[in-house]
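User: Round two. Same drill as before: sequence, then structure, for each protein.

Assistant: Same drill it is. First protein:
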Amino acid sequence: MASSSGTKDVGPQRSMSRRMTKMASMVEAGDDNTTVDSETVPSSLASIAPILRVANEIEPENRRVAYLCRFHAFEKAHRMDPTSSGRGVRQFKTYLLHRLQKEERETEHVLANDDPREIQKYYQNFCKKNIREGQYTKKPEEIAKIYQIATVLYDVLKTVIPSSKVDNETQKYAKEVEEKKEQNEHYNILPLYAVGVEPEIMKLPEIKAALRAIRNVEGLPSFLTSTEKERPAHDILEWLAVIFGFQKGNVANQREHLILLLANMDVRKKNPHGYEQLDDETIKELMNKIFKNYRSWCKYLHFDPILDRSPRDRRQQARLLYIGLYLLIWGEASNIRFMPECICFIFHRMAKEMHGFLFGNVQQVTGDTFIINPKGEEAFLKEVVTPLYEVLRKEASGNKDGKASHSTWRNYDDLNEYFWSGKSSKLKWPLDGKGDFFVHSDTAKPANKKDNQPVGKPKTNFVEVRTFWHLYRDFDRMWIFFILALQAMIIIAWHQRGSSSVLFDDVVYRSVSSIFVTAAFLNFLRAVLDIVLSFKAWRSLKSFQILRYLLKFIVAAFWLVIMPVTYSRSFQNPSGLLKFFNNLGADWQSHSLYYYCVAIYLIPNILAAFLFLFPFLRRSMERSDWHIIIMLMWWAQPKLYVGRGMHEDMFSLLKYTLFWITLLISKLAFSFYVEILPLIEPTKTIMNLTVSSYDWHEFFPNVTHNIGVVIAIWAPIVLVYFMDTQIWYAIFATLVGGIHGAFSHLGEIRTLGMIRARFESVPSAFSERLVPYSKEEARQNLQDDTTERISIAKFSQMWNEFILSMRNEDLISHKERDLLLVPYSSGEVSVVQWPPFLLASKIPIALDMAKDYNEREDADLFKKIKTDDFMYFAIIECYETLRDILIALLVNDGEKKVIWRICREVERSIRNQRFLKEFRMSGLPLLSDKLDKFLNLLMEENGDDQSYRSHMINTFQDIIEIIIQDVMNNGHEVLKEVYTFQENNKKEEKFQNINIDLLHSRSWREKVVRLHLLLTVKESAINVPMNLEARRRLTFFANSLFMIMPRAPKVRNMLSFSILTPYYKEEVLYSTDELNKENEDGISILFYLQKIYPDEWKNYEERINDSKLVYAGKDQAELVRQWVSYRAQTLSRTVRGMMYYREALELQCFLDFADDKAIFGGYRAIDKNQSDYRILKEQAQALADLKFTYVVSCQVYGMQKKSRDIRDQRCYANILNLMLTHASLRVAYIDEREETVNGNSEKIYYSVLVKGGDKLDEEIYRIKLPGNPKIGEGKPENQNHAIIFTRGEALQTIDMNQDNYFEEAFKMRNVLEEFLKTHHGQRRPTILGIREHIFTGSVSSLAWFMSNQETSFVTIGQRILANPLRVRFHYGHPDIFDRLFHLTRGGISKASRVINLSEDIFSGYNSTLRRGYVTHHEYIQVGKGRDVGMNQISLFEAKVANGNGEQTLSRDVYRLGRRFDFYRMLSFYFTTVGFYFSSMVTVLTVYVFLYGRLYMVLSGLERRILEDPSLRQSKALEEALATQSFFQLGLLLVLPMVMEIALERGFRTAIGDFIIMQLQLASVFFTFQLGTKAHYYGRTILHGGAKYRATGRGFVVFHDKFADNYRMYSRSHFVKGLELLILLIVYEVYGHSYRNSSLYFFITFSMWFLVASWLFAPFIFNPSGFEWQKTVDDWTDWKRWMGNRGGIGISPDKSWESWWNEEQEHLKYTNMRGRILEIVLAFRFFIYQFGIVYQLKISHGSKNILVYGLSWFVMLTALLVLKMVSMGRRRFGTDFQLMSRILKLLLFLGFVSVMVVLFVVCDLTVSDIFAALLAFMPTGWALILIAQACRPCLKGIGIWDSVMELSRAYEAIMGLIIFMPVVVLSWFPFVSEFQTRLLFNQAFSRGLQISMILAGKKDKTPSS
């Protein structure tokens, strides 16, 4: 038994009298998983996890010591939490206790007779074996693990043995371990303190130089250790940590970070051989990159930068100290990293403090160095980071989970912009928490404060107010231009009478000049909006900023008065309002004063136009600090830290200016001649008509000029005028983007035939772009044939790895692989050995040609052969390869001479042009057949079988016999000459000795396989590979080699980069259960994918059944899981793809450094046992580590590790498996622990980085956080916590639904070189845009539509955004960031709650505002998955629309819109928020048009106008009515899609795809999504409610229920669609008698199409949407859902009431303005009742207002009756059934009596009843909408339940109307079949029998 020295009173005794069972909630009984106890430790007991890991590690060697370790862990856990109050502690302790009881009985002593001696002996043996003897032979990671185990063992030993009884040897070992353990911890990339086997990466001279530089601590003050001893720091980062109190994990992380940065930057500047010192220029360059923003900040605030104050002799050390200090601050800043200028402020103060330490006056005077008292490890966290974080957290809590108005709390931008002002200099240092920065927005109001006095901190510089006025304020110049242009065009059209010189008419000229009056009004509006929308930020503004706002308002008001007054004076005979203004200035005798005013008014615009032409001048002025310039710029553009100097160079400006001038001319000409001019004459006629009677009660009968009709006609046209610029942009962007793409060489190789035609030039293009050469080497290449062969060999290595990667991905079969592979070396053959797919069928064709050339001239045959280069190459290669194989197989020298003699005869006859005379071509087919058999024998595996040998010898002899007898004319003479000395030998004795062992050589087998393919493949290989994805990758890669790209540098000289992938809880790897789980149709994911990808499944089966490969011993279920997961949007697919970067780097290193022999031998064929090649491999891995890092930010990995949820545990295991599989993969996560602080349990958060160990993860860095890092949007916060663990100068952001390809990874070096290219003399890119391939397009027709749409955006769309428009931003992954630029400017995204919902694009905005440069490159691509189901796509579109709504309110859009020049601002608007606003205007146009027509029809005005004789002969009005229908189709928006397909796949393909898309109802889909965009964009701006919507990225093989579709689309589509349906019906019914039916159809066709799309698209694109049984089930489910009562805890998918309440969530949190607007909009529904009641026959033509009043009486009576029925049901329904029935009977009799009276007495007709329904139903809906907006009031007076019941009735009716057509169509079986073919047409073309799938008729044959 063990004794527990010093711990006997704590916890349980070691001897346990009773058994306790494990809690089932912890682990299942009998679970033998040894990692359970160490990996599921509760967070409050986290410190015992290493002890349990050690116990598991040593258990195979000594179970007793493992038991003692666990017991020590148990005791420690009991001391930490004696009451088991922590979460999960009691269960864990119970489990551990049970295990200890069991082990106490079962374990035995191995080394001694008792526990003390046992553990002491084991400890000594362990240390002697692993530390004393093994420290110089083991790798650093092994040493780290050993020291960790030794430390834990000694801790356990001390609890078992009293300290006085520990022997000297043990203490000696313990002391050695204690001294060295810090230097032997787990490392990330660099094992800095390795003492054993030195890793190759630590031998790199650049690493050594960087390490030497940061270890230069000469002259730095020493510090006192914990034992009061003085010692210097090991390096500058440790010194900084001592004086400022940085955390140990942060220091270790940034130490490695800094070393890698310095090493990678330094090696590019010099020869990597033979240098020891770091270049000063390297440090200076790094310093300039990191501190560029800091210097700019100091300059802006007139601070003196600290950086330049260090003495010259210590400058390098000082620079490294400053860089190290900044990185340490940044590494520990947590959420403050989103506030770059706050970090500048912290650095400025701390650098000042450090400068005092180093170069203070005392030190300079005395010359002495002083000793520092070190700060605690978390001093910086507690004193600096935590106070600032608390401000962030408290402000973020004010957003109330995204529900509160943005104006009520300060976001990240508000808090960061505090440091743009001089106020930041007033903050005390150290921070005391008393400055005004620390005052929160939610500060409680003091008792002595008056109500009107402001409380808390205001917003900073900008207020995000929910209003559409932001669009006008942000883009005011655009709106002013369009409004003035519209006004001018209307004036000109009004006066045009067929004369083209109308502009020179004085009256017209004077009228057009009135646009300046309008301009004055619009500018006044802008000034008012500036004041109103920024009012809540006034208290944060400086006085001169407020003064500017007020002066702008005063000046605008001045011009608002002056312009109309002076304009009125320019008319001689004014009248009306004009006369009033004229009299104001009656004393002024200057009729031309207006023109002088206009000239003065335009002066600022003229100056702006002048500066526009000289962008460099404007750029310099905006950046200038001269006071005179600042004063001049103050009026035009107030000084702001960001947004200064964003102007492009002259050439770029000319390009996008020309684009927009051409576009605007086309748009305005079209608007004038098509939209405006045709309306002028009808408008004049209508205005001159006199209408004396109306069909309703007209409230304003005396209004002149029929102004209502004019508005109804012109309103939709005006909306179209403002919207159609978006369509013109689509047209021009398509044309320019297509031309630009063509000049970029896109689509030059788009088919396999094109690859074959140009494959000869592919190796040279590869060498030119992807093989690095110095200038001398490049010059030598032109003259050196050997170098060319090496280049081809290098291409072969890469090409073959590319082909093998596709084979491993199962895109190609074994045969296709062999046809596509290239021999590594062509040294043994005199011609270039092309891939067999180019040479396939050439030999059989040549044989057919040759056999017809008997006894003819050689020249004809050879000429015909040489016309086909590939045929010539194939013949020569086959001949030489066959010769080499035959000679190599033979053992006897005499027999070899026979082969050589035959070959000499062949060559001699060809030289003498006697080949056809000396050889019989008729024998060649027979020879070919025999060779086929012979080569098949060579490829077989049973080489040791005797029968096999004899068969081979016989075949060999047959071949020789055929050659001698059937092919050669003098064959026997050849034999005689060779065998003259052996005349007695028999024929059958010859060619019997064959060297079978030769076949064991891999290179010979490859030759045999290749020769067999060349001889036997008779069909053309034009279709190799068959797989469409493989074809796409081949063609794109080949095409990209001819595109413009920077030349690749050597790996050592390339930029280093990282990849960061944020992950939350998405799928990592599908489980077997998920694969085989069947849906309601009996379809599993595995079966579905087997049918969609039948060729890939067949290739997979071929691969795993191949005995030559390593799959025999692997888990088949695991392989299937991987196969499926690699076709889904999973993390495992992403990781596999990103790891191709590392594979490519290792291959590139091999090609860079290997000798010629190794390159010709092949990358995969090198002997790794040879020391030179082993070192080469290790060097390649070291350089790959140096250049590439991959971090996956698995935010909840720590939680998943401890979770009891099966799915979480599976995710943890899968992520761990990824780390174990990929050694260079790193996982960052947020660890949440419960720790006791001041006696209270608190949650403590850490950023942790782990890597894969032997079996488990190994922790590398742990950095404590000031609190929960998620206080804003989740994804950017997740990225932010992990970005500190990334490395390198570039950072690629990759989402977890992306993929990568080996061949594309090979081009990463080239892309990174773009960062070093200077654009237009001064700017380098800060974001590199990369195109994407959407890999989900083949799943269904919807996925295909989405794929095409997304592909057009990421190609032609972003191509034109980058060039010429210069407004490309960051649209999500996979862009590559200049990492140092962005980490010093706020990171790669923004994270403020809700406003930064689309977090990615804000990094692009931020980069541009901070003078970044964004480019786009299409010679490289990565894969990306998109949503594939209707509901998934709609959720995605809703999320993006929400995000654009929030962008509209943001300061970034405001600043870009205001600070871009006019044309770049237009580009910005129409490619971001303008697109969504235009979508909303498109929908709004339909409403305005139909409501205008409703007014005209119901009032009778349309009838009277169309029947007027003056208009009857004119078609102008009808044309005007029909104009806008053309635009509703929206087909022009498909143009970019068609252009990109045409460019990359051919025009014919594009037309075909377009037609197929239309046949598959793509227009229905896109029209439906138009409604999604419009609804969510508008609602977000009005009411908020934007949120992240998880779309789910799985395969849609299931049917969505009707209730699900109804919930999702009710408000966004169904309600709107039914409203438009009613409008169209009313317009048709009440205008039918006098209107041309064809005119009605033409006008309203697009609207009917819109209505049909909005109402029925979800069912058309729903799998099994028209299957009868599904329809019945849907109806049952929907009825149940409608009837269920809601309440607390009832989810929306269970009850209509819960859903209905959730749908009104946005109204709960909207402001009063939003409620009023909702009420005002609801009033439109009252027009139906008002208009229709006067059309009823029962009204007898009366136009009295009493008719309308009586209709309200009827309406209220109906509502009252419904209320009575509802109350009666509730009160009498249960207890008084009879009373309830009597009440219903009375109501029924009353209703019948009233109807009889109305029919008999009042002439009511049946048509009146239907008309009344059309009249009263909208009124009821309006009442419901108004009630919802007034919900608080109605709840107070107790009628809310009635509103809810009325709403339920309306919802039931709407559902019934929508459901009925579905029911009818479901009756017909062919409809369901047609829908299936419609949905899955793409899959049909690839062999998917989806009809069988959806019917559940699964193929029962078992799959292997």
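Second protein:
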Amino acid sequence: MGVLRALRGFFTGVGARSGPARGENGGSVVGAVPAAITTFAAVVISILDQLEDAQGGRVEAYRQLESVLWGDESDLQSSVAGRAIALAAQDLRVAQDTTAAVRMAASDVLVALARWHLHDVVSVLQGHLQALEEMSVELVLHTLHNLAIRYALQCVPFAGKTLAALRGVLSTAGSSRMLCAVCGVVEQWCSGISAYLRQREKCDFPHLGAAQLCAPVYSLGKQAMLRAMAVMMGVLLHAEEHHQHAWEQLLWLLHQYREVQDPSGVTRSLSYFLWAVMDVQAQVPRAKILAVIAAVHEQLCDEMEPPSPGHRAELCHCMVLQARICPEETIVFLYYKLRTGNKVDRVAAVEMLQALVRCDAPDVREKLPLFTKLVQSVCHDPAAQVRKAVLRFLGELLHSSALGCSAWDVVGHLFGEFSRASGRLATGKLSVVEVWEERTVQRLCAHVLGSLDVSAGAVAKLLWPRLLQYVVPAEYTGMLVPLCRCLRALAERTERTEGEEEKAAPEALKPAEPAPLPAPQALLARLLVSTGAPGEGASVAGVRGEPGEMVLQLVLGTPGGGGRSMVVAAVAPHTGGGHGAAALQLLQVLCGTIHRAVGASWATEIPLLLQHLAGTTAGFLDRAEWDSLLLKFLRASLEVIASEAWTVELSRELSRQLGGSPRLSWEKRFLYKALGTALAACGCLRHVREQTLQHLEATNFLELWEAQGIVSVVSRCAESHFQLALSSVQQFTGTLKHRKQSHALRNRAARATLMVIYGRMALRAPREQLLTHVERDIVGNVLQLYREGCQDAQLKLSLVQSVTEISLAIQAADAGPRFELCCKRELLQMLLEVMQEEPQESPVQPRALMAVEQLSKLKPRLSREEKCSLLAQCCRGVVCLRHPEQMEARGEAAAAAPVAPGVQAPALRALGQLMRTLLREEPAPICFEDVVQVLRHWLASAEECERERALQVCVQLLGAHEEQREHGRGRACEQFGSLAGLLGPLTCDASAASRWRAATCLGHLLQIGAETTDVAPCTNEIGYLRERLNAVAPDSLLATSTNIAKLVCKHVPQGQAADFMDTVMESLQCTRPVRAWAAGRWALTFLGDCGEQIFQEEVPELVTILCTCLQSTQQSTRRCFVLRAMFILARCHQEPVIDSLLQRCLPMDSNTVEVWRSLGRSALGYPILERLTEKLRAAGDSSQGSECCARELGSSQAALEPHTIIRALCEMVSVLQSEGLVQHLLPDLLPSLLGQVSETLREEMEPSLREPESSDTSGRLFVEVLELVLSKCLEERWLRLLREQGAWASLAEPQAHSAGVCLLASVLLRAELVPPRLLQNLSTWLDSCSANLRLTATAFFAELMKDRLVEERKLLKPLLEAFAARARDPVSAVQQMAMRGLGNAASGAPVKLQRHGAAVVAVLRGGLEDGASVEVAAESLLALAKVLGPLVARAIGSAFEEVTRSSRAFWGAEEEALRCSAFTLYGALAASASASGRRSFFSREVEASFPSLVLHLGDPAPAVRDACKMALHRCAPFLASERVRRRVAASTGLSAAELQDELCRHLARDCPALLESLCHMAQSCCTGSCQAPQEAAVRILGLLMNAAPAERPQRQDPASRWGARQRQRCNRSPRARRAAAVGTRQPGAAEL
């Protein structure tokens, strides 16, 4: 009924039911709460303490706890609830002291606790469903049942995991009671799921889908149905009347194989039913049992979904049950499938028979011969799966009972199958899958043989001869491990039993006739060969052999073409799974069988060999060493046997096995070695000679293994019979000349092999016999074979190998100082020619290097030059080897590519050894430097593979050099700097190997450098940083490389900074960005850490290196590195860097410009600018030193340095960010620039210094720089003023230079940029020998005199004195500026000037003397005019009158400036005279000069007219005529011409006397030589003629009397004609 309820719950669902907990008697339990305890939690804790202390009855305590839990609505703390759940869950388990009532009460407490902690309770119950006894599982199921009743909807989220756990319980349910319990739980949980699906909207937990809930229900339902049906069918079998219904349900159960997804449940139900059938011994209908057999067989044959191993075992168990129920039908069915079924059917049938053999039931065991016969019918099946199934059956048969093997030679079948698989593999025509199948068959054969039980005595007697005969044949090598173990076990058991069980052996197991046993020599040879064979699947090149063998492999070609034979397939020769240990152990057991004399020796030697194997693994076994141990064991055994006949027979046996071994096998290789060892131990010399010649004649030298084998035979034979072997080889060598030409290829291979044989014989020859035969009989024959043969790669390789081994043999022979190899230089020359002739990818290269290295150790010694040349050639030959990928990319021959990987590493190692040898014999520095020079080219190569190899060579070179220097402190390594700079950036190379090697080289360099310094080498830090170079991120690599640089740079010796920076800068131009950045960082690190220690003499070279690198680098990032390096160098050595940059040729290129600008932007901008200013000033001072020096350097070099400095200044100032820096330097910079501007002017004041060239742009350059400098100091308004007034153009022009200086000084004064130091620097020029500098300084100070600054700084007196001195300067322009300065003093210091008035006037009067230039005179007049203002007339004394008269003297001057200045001075005199006591004097002067003043009002120069008008106005008060005075005063607004016209009219009307004086004045001017007064006179006369009265007789008119002369004068002077025309056009001219 429980089953029916469960099924009903699966499909319909029932509502939740709930009820109170029941006690043991079915009533409700209400416990009494102690009165002392009042809180809910305290009550629970008290009860739990009681349960833990086992005080009182546990049932009552649980019932009391349940009552408390149900009676309180408050929540229980998690910790208390967890404690209660743990106690209750623990009591659910079945224990000796736990009753059913306690477990039931604990279950009810868990249900009550689930009220608040449902998740914790369900999780604990799910865990308890596994690994519990049936009774405990029932209690867990009971608790789950109650939980589903109480909390139907709340349990839905836990339904999936709970139902999955129930599946596991259902699969192991062993009783109907357990099955009913499971079904009850399923029913209640399914009811909860149905209720949830109807009202899921009311639930507060996340919604679950129907499919999600139904999936575990469906799976569990199917399983429950199958289990229930099987149990039900088993129950029905107990009543015969229900058998028919049981058979019908059986068919339904078999049908479920096609319905369910997991058929394992069906199989378990079927197995349960078959057990029930066998238990009740019911008679099953034949049709039904056949249906069961067919269904089980079909499941085993399912290829689409193969059954799991567990399911397959369950199916086989069903087959065993069927065989026990219906044996005849089962056997018939299996026989039918074996005969008529397909491959899968046969495999399944054999597997079923294997299960039957495994069964221990007596009724099945008695049918074993029948089962064996059935399987024997398919033993020759070609299918690999069937063969493997048969082998597994045989393994089970051998393991179960030997009686089943009596009718079938099971051992023979195992070895036959192994041989069959080996033959198929040897064809080489199998697919990958077929190869795997055949190898699986072989492994299975070995496994079956290894599981053979030899404990039965009868079996031991039967198997011993059968197994022993399979030891010698080589085809069973793969079975050797289990075979040896079986034989060893049989032998050990035979020794223990000593034939006691022979009488009890059944007749069927005794052999019909004794099997033939193999010979002792055959056993020894075979087991030794098996011990020395390589591991399974080992390739020909996978195991290291002797050197000559590898050479012959390269000479004759690599084995393994299209018809390649099978290499011996065996497991590795190691203890446990290796045949080496097994063969040795068998040898130890068979010692009595092989020879009685070896028992004692083998008892000690074989354990040593086994111990050697036990200490190694397959990956670390040295094959050559192992072979040597085996051959020593063989030699020692033959010496112990000491039987010539036995040894001869062994050698013949080895020869026979040699002929029967596979062509390309390591077995054959070891046989050759063993044969050579046997011949060496043989005392019959005739036999040895015959065997040696026989094998030489029979050898096919074109075959690699045969050529290698004959080398081993002859060379090992020479160990004991050197002269015999040498004569035999010489005899065979002599026969090569008489061989047919058709065998040319074979003869060539024979020559190559013979050359190798000679070298190997020298290695193995006794020392006392070698030296007497080496040069004539060995080296002579080698050279003869080489000369007579075709000198191709084969013969060259043989020559190289032979020379190497001969050199090693001579060294090992300890020849002593007297022995010298006379043909050493000839051999070296031949080796070098071989290296040059062969392609670089040829394997000859590394071998030749090895030969050169060994040969160089022999006497006679080479000279130093020979050694250096030899080493350089070898380095070039190795480093430029090309990588296979590179060859393939260039489309070169593919045949050479496979050789390259094997060429590179040996060549590099050989080169390293050669370097060590030569450095050891030769003083290191010379040889070391030569090699470094060769390597530098390759270390900087653009090819990655070349750099990598060069680094490998460099590692070995530095290592050897370090070893040589470590014995004493020598001088500093001269290549340290260049190597460090070259290797440093390679720590960021693209190749990780190159990075690692570069760091290793740097470590060696540090060790070398530490020998000559007191600084620790920091090799540990280098090693740590080297490991971090494996990073991939560029930032990480750069950081690590920088840290390495910090360690290395401080060890660079002084004096090698240029070498270091040169190589680093070369790396900066690398195409790979990371390496270039590393080079930049190395350069910066070196300069930053070691810049102070660099010698001053190295700085110019460093600057050149940096500039050259900057010129060849275009990328901005890399240029920044160079500029930064220049900055750091300048910070450490500012003066040399500046000097070096200034020495670069002009015009300045863009790179040099960028250098100056970068320095200007840096923190060194101001110091360098200050230094450049000093240099510019020094250059100016040096140019002023002597006139002859200036003349000598005036053409090219004299201007080079100033021009370079000025260019540098220009670039630096242009990028300066702070104006204050330039302003601070202005007092020094401005004089220097002005001085250069002044010095570049072509117009000198002295004629002797003038040059014919007038076009020079040098001054313009300096002016531009001056403008740039001032642009950093002045505001824009002052700059605009300078530009508008043409100051810059004036400075560059010789004639206007002084005006430009004055304008510049004026602006600087107004901008308040005239500090005292500027004046101090300029004041030194006042006494300079350079006229231009004196002019510049005088002009500047002349303008300075206008400002109050002169008075404030108390500069008046010194400047007046300086101006007084300059007033006598031979250069007139300087005199002019001096006069101007004296005049400007009236503006700058008017008060204090009165103290020096007389002196100033005296100096100014000197400028009016005869001999003064026009400019000086004019400037003197103007200066007097300025000075008279602040001076009092009486202050100048009598000089006033003289000045007045002097000024009048210049009114008639031809020069406009003189006239203008004179009238200006006269006006100033008038102003001064009116305020002093000189009025009477000046009145007289005015009366006398009035006509001239009126006359010059018509001067042709406007400036003169204006000055004259101003003077006339100031002189008006001194006129005697009141009318004239008033007329002049009233004409303020008139122009000079209008005033002249007005005065002429007035004089003509009212002042005839003045008119007469004016006419006489005009007449005198007309007769003068000055043209300007003539024009004025002509004009005034015209005006006078117009202004004369009409009634006056014309004869009395002076103007009329002068008319004729006027006309004549006008005809002579054009300007006079124009003036007369102007005068006659005046109003009134017609009347006149």
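The mean pLDDT is 74.

User: Perfect.
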